[in-house]
Amino acid sequence: MSTVLMITGPSGIGKTYLTEQLVNQYPSHFEPLRLYTTRPARDNEYFTDRIHVTKSEFTMRFQNGDFFVADQFHGNWYGYSKRALRNNHKIVVGNTWPALIPKFIHIPGLYLIGMTLNNNGVEILKKRMIDRGDSHKTVHERTKLISKDVQDLESVRPLIEKFGKIFKILDNSTIHEDVIPWIKSSLLNDA
To answer: What pLDDT, on the 0 to 100 scale, is given for residue 191?
Structure first.
């Protein structure tokens, strides 16, 4: 069974960015947890941690028991493949929304990273989404979700602290100066 590192936090905080950094900097230690989703790919989406499928294909996979966790989020379905957990010698790293964290705690070898905001964090996240090319409509829609995600993160704080750590993200330097070093010291023996 694989070690699984799940990253959670509000929309735009850097969950996919952190996953990408770990996979690119430490390819012999980390691989992305592939996420099946019925959500269409965004124009600027390039990291290969998502597999975009039709609703009928997702339903077939779900009925066949292909997912160890699956749920609906804002009208789209998301599922994490059981295949990713089998006989893997790398740490499988993925991200999810905070409300889904309780569905992961049954996984042996689970580590959790929570990423939250400081007081002016919503403005930072809006800027980050705009800078990465999200449309103003998308930014507006996703901004409405941020406060719910932050509340959900607080409600699962005890689980995150039991299986990992929560970090306040100020910008990408926090990810490089605090989060990645903690992951290296907690999960890697020789990096």
So the answer is: 44
